[in-house]
Each structure stands twice: as C-alpha cells, then as structure tokens.
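USER: My hope is that you can spare some time for a protein that puzzles me. I am handing you a single protein, as its sequence and its fold in token form. Walk me, if you will, through where the backbone shape changes along the chain. The protein I mean follows directly.
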Amino acid sequence: MSQQKENKKQGQKKHRSNLDNIFVNKKQKKLEEELEKENLEEILGENSDSEELKLQQYQNKVNKILQNQEENSESEEENYENENSENSQNQENQQNKENKENQEKQAEIAKNEAWVDEHDKEIDIDISQVARLRKLRKTMDEKIISGEEYQKRLKQFYNEKLVSSSFYSWAFKDQQYNGDSDLEDEDMGDEQKQALLENILKQDNSILQDRSEVEYLPQEILDIQKFSGVKIQEQHDAVIQEIDFHQNSQIFLTGALDKMVKIYNIRDSAQSQYKDKIKLIKSIYLEGLPVETAKFINNKGEILVSGLKKHLLCIDLQKDKIEKVSSHLFTQRFTQKLGKFVLSKSQKYIALFNKSGYFVMILDGQTKQFLFEIKTTEGIRHLDFAYDDKFIFVLGVTGSVFQYDLNKRSIFDVFQDESVNSGFIKCGKSQVAIGSQSGIVNVYQQNSFNDKISGNPLKEIQNLTTEVSEINFNYSNEIMAIGSKWKKNSVRFVHMPSYNVFQNWPNFKTNIGFPSAISFSYDNRFVAFGNEKGHVNLYNLAHYNNKSNQSLI
C-alpha cells in the first residue's frame, strides 16, 4: 500500500514539473520579446561603448525574473505536496479509526459468546452437497466456504428467521411494516409459513370468564357480516367435508375429498393493511386418503384425520410429520372403511364409527390408544358426546337414541326421536338436537337432575326443507346453526335458549353455496362455511367482537 502511494506521489510531482517548465519557457519567450521591443530603439541609439552594458543589464533583468518564477514554482509544489500529505494522513487516520471500532465490536461479540473455536478458521465446508446447507449459498455455483464464514452465515440465517417470526406475529399483534403488504404475502416461503404456524400454535388465548359480566346475544336480529372468502387458487378441488378451528381462534383447517388438509390464518381488523384477510399457510396432501373428518387435538399442534381407509392419520404440525394410527380391531370392526370420528368436547375421548355399522370404538384422546367398544342393537346413523363428556348419544337407523354412560361403560337410557329417518345428532350444553331427512330439527332437553332426555322435543324447527346434514352450537351455547348440503344457502341460525330463528340472515345477498360444513371459532367471533366447490366463506359475528362476550361458561 505504501509503495503505491509513493509511486503516485512521484508521478504527480513529475507531471507538475513538466507543466512548470512549459509555463517558464512561454513566460521567458514572451518577456524576451517585450524587452526586445521596448529597448530596441534605446539600444540601437546608443554608441558602441554603452551597447555592451545595456545587453548585460538586459540579461540580468531576465535572469532575475526567471529566478523569481522558479522560486514561486517551488513554493507551489511544496504547498501541493503538503496538502496531499495532509489528505493522506487524514485518510489513514480515518481508516485506523474504523479498524479500531471493528476490532472493538468483534471483541465485544467474542466476549458475549459462550465459546469460540479457533479451529473454525482452518476448516472448509462444502455447502452444495446437503439440501439444508444450500440455503446458505449466496450464488448458485458456490460450494466451499471456511468454517468461520459458515458460522457467520448460520447466524445470519437464523437471525433472519427470527425476524420472520416477528413478522408473523401479525396473526396476533398489530405490527408496523414498510412496503407493499401484498408483495410480502407472495414472498412468503414454506419455511416462513411453517414458522408462522408454529408461532400461532404456541399462543394461549384463554377466553374463559364469569358469565355474569357478559352481555347476552340479542334474540331478534343477528349482527353478522361477511369477513372474507378463501382465494380461488387456495381452495380445495372437491367438496369440503370438515372445518375445524384451533383453540386460539386464529387458524382453522379444512379437509376435503381431494385428499388435502389446508390450514388458514385469519387476519382480523387490526391487520387491515392486508388485502387477503384469510391466508393459506399450509397444505398437506394425504396420499390415498379422501378426508372425511379432521380435527385439531391435544392443543399440541396435532391434527387427527380419518377417511375412506381402515386407519387414522395423525399430523404433527410442529415436527412436520405424519403418523399412522391403526389397530387390528379397526380391521375387525370396520369391514369397509373407518369413515368418520367424533371428538369429545374436552378431547378426552375419540369415537370411531361407520354408518350402518354396529360398533363404536372409544380411544383415549391423548394417546389415541383403544379403551373400549360399544355394540348397538341397530345400525348407526350418527353420534355425539354430551357437553360434559359423561355420556355418548348414538343415533340408530330407526330413530332410537342410545345414551351410554362412559364412566360405567354401559347403557344409561334409550329414547325415540319423533322424526322419521333421523340422520344427524348434536349435543349442546344441556340440549340434544336431532336432524331428519325431511329438514326438521327436534331439540330435546337434558334433565339436570337425572341426566335423562325428556320424552318429547322441547322445540321443533321446520325452517329447512331438505335433509339436515349439519348441526353445530357455538361455544357460548347461544347460537345453533343448522344446514343442508342439498340446497343452496340452506342455513339457519337459531337463538338459544329462546329457539327464535334469526330472520335477517341469510338474505338475498348471501352466497355460501351448498353448505357441506359449518364451524364456529372458540371465541365465537367467526363462523365458517364450506361448500361443494371446495370454497370457504368466513363470517364475523359482531356481538362477540367485544371480548367480554366471548366466554365459554
């Protein structure tokens, strides 16, 4: 570096000297011409004796001028050199200062590190061979990097991933970002979506509180507004069979006969800068398994799936693994397919059955191990667990309802539904609703003293005209949704416990298609509808936007 500076200085000095010589020669020539013209007459007019003196004076005058010019040139060159020297010194001081700051910064980092391996500088690592290391490359053809560089890139990668996780927290908090939000959405990769999903699953949004503080749902008008629909390119290619919300109410899953399970994130009004209020964050293809039932279980980021097979699949979202859940009893009891399963409210039990079969298998909700089985005297249409998980109600093909005690593992009571061809049963907090093929929904009351069901229906709802395929209660037990997948927009909301059917929705603007699945979020703010085209529409129930109205007890 010093040799280059010296060569540069000598070149500048030589160039300056050449310019000075040219300048002096021109000045000397011009001066000689002026003096010659000025003194020509005087010199010619004098005698020969004074001519020699005049010439001598002339020569002295010229020499004096040349000497002054040379002194000025040397002075300018010295100033130029001093100026360059001063600039070089300033640059050198600045560089030394920066180097010192970098050294201090590195020393501080090293001081904070728990351990530093000096041998990292001596090893080389090939980052082109292993798939998980290729993400550290800066160019596609990069192969070998040093151990020290490898360590730096790892830190940078995981720091960026941490930033990504902060970015994903818009699922719960209102973050401020610069740039186009839609562009950020499109740039989200699989790893970022996975980090988002893991972040959401770790949230614990408890909404339990004293019902004495709650403003109850009005029974005349339901304040419901469409929140958003799933983008066409992110929907299913077949009929949606299942919609289920996670307990934090920020994500929900859908399952369909296209062998896909999709997970979506809800962006509420706090994140209104996003164009898409529902974002697909994970798609899971289950080869050979058209999905009939899919549920979040254990609050551990697991999904249990059943379909047209004699086994279950358990999807671990955090480990990104799929495990098969099977037993020889599945093969013995379910001759054709496993079909659907029902999860108890507390997720303590899992009930497996297939329609027209005679067996119900009860599994442990935590371990998914077989506990016991229930044998019925007639084919099974549908079943559901009681709100407190003490009983399971099994609906038979003749309309008989068998009430089994899960603690004693024996039959507790039997009653007959008044409708003909009953096909769907759902339990509320103290009600049992049974839907029929004619569209009638009978609601029975469970006696609080002896836990038995009253003989006659408490309410008969006749607002549907085709077979009832969906009945669902929201988690505050204030709304019962009933629907039929055989007629477009065939959905009604029933106020509980007045049993008043809300008349303001659906209206002429409603377009949810043929509702094949209905589900409420745990905080009651959202209700989702799946249809025959694989599309999901999400609606907001404004009454529950007030957090004090979201309680479950």
About this structure: The helical segments are 2-38, 40-45, 48-112, 131-134, 147-168, 181-187, 190-201, 328-333. DSSP finds eight helices and 29 strands in the chain.
